[in-house]
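@channel sequence for tomorrow's demo:
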Amino acid sequence: MAKPTLERSQPCEVLDINPCHCLTELNQHANELAASPADWMPWTCRDTLTKHATPESI
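structure tokens (generated this afternoon):
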């Protein structure tokens, strides 16, 4: 069985997303991830981050 980080990094690479950035964002948004996991999949993460962005983080 693959490690969770490897399982997540492969779809990120296919979608041209930096896996390290993706994992960092998941850690920073752990509560939101727990509440709505589907919003934090590699193929939806960019849109979710845009929704959660604050003016100072842009």
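heads up for whoever presents: The chain has a mean pLDDT of 76.
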